[in-house]
Amino acid sequence: MPLSAPVRPVESIGRLFTALQHDSHQMNAVPRKRLHWQYKGEPQLYLFEQGEVSVLRATDGLVMASAYDPHLFGLAESIQSLQCHILRVETESTILRVDAKKAMKIIDEQNLWRDVSITLSYFTSYLFYRDDLVVQQRTYSVIRNHLLEMSQLSLDTRMRTSILEYIQERTHLSRSSVLNVISSLKTESYLEIKRGGYLLEVNNLPDKL
Q1: What is the rounded CA–CA span in Å between residue 134 and residue 15?
Q2: d(CA 91, CA 29)
Q3: Which residues make beta-bridge pairs with 63?
């Protein structure tokens, strides 16, 4: 059985947002825009308020996670020079940018390092959760895990990305492998799918296929 997704630390993220918003600048965040961790040579933090943004692995563009609720990105990247991930805006979004040096000063002054630690721990836990979905799993298990993950998204969000696109962006599974499993599940009435391959409903997926 896969791990459960970690609980997002709403209160800690909220306190960091409140502290940093005053010194932030709103960005023009259009769909498919990729955000750089530096602005004019200075490290940045991003306050993601609403919309949809994906975290991509820098080496190959694999989607590691997607955010639909308020999040704070760039904490680890501003502390460590190794930048393994990039951000890609998926929909019209509200995103604020704040200089990392200024942010760290505010965090020092308001004693918010506990909230920083909690937020970073959440991101670390999410990476363990994601690895549990895909690493050393059989093809069907990987697809099943991602279908269950998709089923937790709103219908509007599911209608923006097909099942095939969602899974392939997050795994190295071939198109044929994904489509064969999806076809079998649909035939057995485990899935309800809209024309175009969009997920409508998941009905008690079997542990094995």
Answers
A1: 33
A2: 8
A3: 56
User: Cα(164)–Cα(57) distance, rounded to whole angstroms?
Assistant: 19
Please state which of the ranges 10-14, 45-49, 136-140, 153-157 shows the lowest mean pLDDT: 136-140
> Do residues 75 and 34 make contact, with C-beta atoms less than 8 angstroms apart?
no
Amino acid 199 reads L
Assigned token pair, 46? 């991003």
What would the mean pLDDT of 64-69 be, rounded to a whole number? Answer: 91
Which alpha helices (H) appear in 40-112, and where do they start and end?
Answer: 75-79, 100-109
pLDDT > 90? residue 31: yes
**Higher confidence at residue 29 or residue 150?**
150
Q: Which of 12, 31, 150 is nearest to 70 (CA)?
A: 12
Burial 69-90 (b: 16+ CB within 10 A, else e): ebbbbbbbbbeeeeeebbbbbb
pLDDT at 1: 55
- CA 46 to CA 151: how far, in whole Å? 28
Of 44, 53, 49, residue with least CA distance to 14:
49
pLDDT of residue 2: 57
Exposure class string for 191-209: b at 16+ Cβ within 10 A, else e: bebeeebbbeebeebeeeb
* pLDDT for position 169: 94
